[in-house]
Amino acid sequence: MKKQKITCKEVSDHICESLGEELDSPRCIAIKKHLNSCPNCQNYFTSIEKTIDFYKKYNLELPKDSHNKLINLLNLSCE
Amino acid sequence: MNEKDLVEKAKKGNKQALAELVKSHEMTVYNFAFKICRNKDQAENIMQETFLSMVKSLHQFDGNSKLSTWLYRIVSNHCLMAYRKMKKHFISFDDEKVSENDNKIGDWSTVPSFAIENQELKDILDNAIGKLSPDYRIVFILRDVNGFSTEETGNITNLSIPAVKSRLYRARTFLRDEINMAFKK
Q1: What is the domain extent for residue A13?
Q2: CATH: 3.40.630.30, 1.10.1610.10, 1.10.10.10, 3.40.640.10. Which one for B110-185?
Q3: Which of A48, A54, A56, A61 should one mutate to test binding to chain B, selecting the residue with the greatest count of B CBs within 10 A?
Q4: Closest Cα partner for B133 from B32, B36, B33?
Q5: Nearest-CA distance B151 → chain A (Å)
Q6: Is the minimum CB–CB distance between A1 and chain B shorter than 8 Å?
Q7: Which helix H or strand E contains A72, and what residues bound it?
Q8: ipTM of the prediction greater than 0.90, yes or no
Q9: Taking the C-alpha atoms of B9, B14, B16 and B17 in order, what is their torsion angle to the nearest 10 degrees?
Q10: In whole angstroms, what separates CA B119 from the centre of its chain?
Q11: Contacts with B19 from chain A: Cβ below 8 Å
Q12: Is A38 on the interface with B (CB under 8 A)?
């Protein structure tokens, strides 16, 4: 099987955390067991993780002009 | 000087303390506003509105939460107000048809992690999130992109934990589906 960026353990931990479940709860253990043998679920979480990652990386620098306008608007000085 | 001291001084009218607070949070506020509205001019306006609100209401800030958490709440409210004024129609999730069948999504393990400098990818991301209602965008950005916990996201947005989880699931899946469709073209 091709190596994936995330592991099933990370996926299942994430699910359990999202559900508010303890990692060793019966429900969480059942989820981990299912994930280990379910390519659909693994693919679902790989796709969601990549989606989130795209948006995480998409940042802007605050333009100097926007900073100056803000400081002037608030009647502050920036020394 | 720590933030609590700066806040106390700013409350008493110390402009240098206020300037320090603005400088330390302006980038966060600007980026959060941009991530919700996907427009640089609008993000700049919302940043200005947010800090004007902060100056006006700083005496009400009780210091029980971080200043940044309080600012996120103000930004969220300004973004929502701006969109209400625009009266733009967004995708509705009422019909529960949120996602394509996951079997049709294809294998994402082969999707490359593009460099974000790629303008085509930026356009795809802007277009996808632009279709999503701001109520859902805010939850997605706070929880997934900015890393707040479900509880913190609920506190900032005044939503219950089940409501945060529901919106997050729908937003994630919708964005994934939109990006998936764009990649197929």
Answers
A1: 8-73
A2: 1.10.10.10
A3: A54
A4: B36
A5: 11
A6: no
A7: helix A64-73
A8: no
A9: 20
A10: 21
A11: 71, 74, 76-78
A12: no
pTM: 0.84
On chain B, the residues whose CB falls within 8 A of the CB of A48 are: 172-173, 176
Binary contact (B176, A66; C-beta < 8 A): no
Q: Which positions in chain B touch A6 (Cβ < 8 Å)?
A: none
The Cα B92–Cα A68 span in angstroms is 39
Greater model confidence, B69 or A77: B69
Cβ count near A2 (within 10 Å): 6
Helix H, strand E, coil C: the string for B121-136 is: HHHHHHHHHHCCCHHH
- The residue type at B157: T
The residue of chain A with its CA nearest to that of B176 is A51
The C-alpha atoms of residue B109 and residue A43 are separated, in whole angstroms, by: 7
Whole-number Å distance between alpha carbons of B69 and B29? 11
B8, exposed or middle or buried, with CB in 10 Å at 0-12, 13-18, 19+? middle
Written as six digits, the tokens of B78 are 């300004």
Answer CATH for B1-90 from 3.20.20.70, 3.90.226.10, 3.60.9.10, 1.10.1740.10: 1.10.1740.10
- In the prediction, which pLDDT does B94 show? 59
Which residues from chain A sit within 8 angstroms of residue B116, using beta carbons? 54, 57-59
pLDDT of residue B158: 94
pLDDT at B73: 94
Nearest to A42 by CA among A15, A18, A69, A77: A15
